[in-house]
Amino acid sequence: MATAVAPEPSPAPTIHDREQTQGLQNIREFLKVRCGYDVFPLSFRLIVLDHDLLIKKSLNIMIQNSIVSAPLWDSQKSCFAGTLTATDYINVIQYYYQFPDEMYKLDQFRLSSLPDIEKAIGASPIETISVNPLMPLFDAIKQMLSTRARRIPLIDVDDETGKGWVVSVITQYRILKFIAVNNEHNTVLFKKTVRELNMGTYKNIATTRMDNSVLDVIHQMVARNISCVPVVDDKGRVLNVFEAVDIIPCIKGGMYEELNGTIGDALCKRPDDSPGIYTCSEHDRLQSIFDTIRKSRVHRLIVVDDDNKLKGVISLSDILTWVLLSEEA
Ligand code: AMP
């Protein structure tokens, strides 16, 4: 007869565990009493594109204004029509390769054609999620995480006309920066390492080489629903990171043929003010990751060992998921 084995008692929480729990609880409370309006910088610009614009023209506008996404406005119905991101351009590229006979139409496609293009290739439709700027940040981030949106437009309603208007767009980066800047006293309590917290992805990481084609990487990004692919050498050392937004300069002017070019060539097309890549070690404490976010424009961290060999990827969505949803608090 089998004898029941008593479960191992979980170890008593250490002082670091208790401090971390307290810091996390404080940040969650903070996010419940702050809203989208609080996240705005003192001055900002907002570029909204009419969804009747030609896709080809929208690319030039993105490049000229150094932006990688924009809310779309349906001026006929006077309403928000979704958020244009690099993923939508990737979908146009996929369409181009799946329906080569339709190539002649590509120059005539408008942003309003995106839902049809995305339906034709079975891709997720353009992001249409938005939140009211008065919604508590805690709830807004939860919506972002559940829809995997990396940015979310804030739409308020005009009291007189009852119509919505786009106030701004908040990104995962801006939210994490806001948390980091206003909660230094809480983030210093995060003394566990990113590996102890199991933060990020460490297995089955999609990588590429400098001489691979951009198109191959695009297929990887679509298949895995990821926004970046580390570029490594033959010893697995990290040389750079190819990001979804790197695709935009590659197809400037509707030159979809350039996607057969190499990752190395594509990275040379990056704007001069690109933030570059940020690395960390799996032994870095979370508090130091928040320090980096406080000081720099970080969009993800690549985890490397002492030899600069790739170990993992920590996305902003991984950090936000831990802050909001981990059971450590
Ligand atoms: P992101 O697309 O950056 O929001 O990341 C979504 C999820 O995919 C996160 O859990 C990341 O850790 C993971 N991830 C990001 N890039 C890669 C990659 N190149 N290979 C495998 N997983 C990744």
TrEMBL record:
SMART domains documented for this protein: CBS
Molecular function via GO: AMP binding; protein kinase binding; protein kinase regulator activity
Magnesium in keyword set: no
Pfam families noted in UniProt: CBS
Annotated InterPro entries: AMPK_gamma/SDS23_families, CBS_dom, CBS_dom_sf
Domain of life (superkingdom): Eukaryota
Transmembrane found in the keyword field: no
Family in the record: Belongs to the 5'-AMP-activated protein kinase gamma subunit family.
Stretches assigned to the CBS domain: 123-187, 199-258, 273-329
Transmembrane parts of this sequence: none
Name of this chain's protein: CBS domain-containing protein
A single cellular component GO annotation: nucleus
UniProt keyword terms in alphabetical order: CBS domain, Repeat
Lineage: Eukaryota, Fungi, Dikarya, Ascomycota, Pezizomycotina
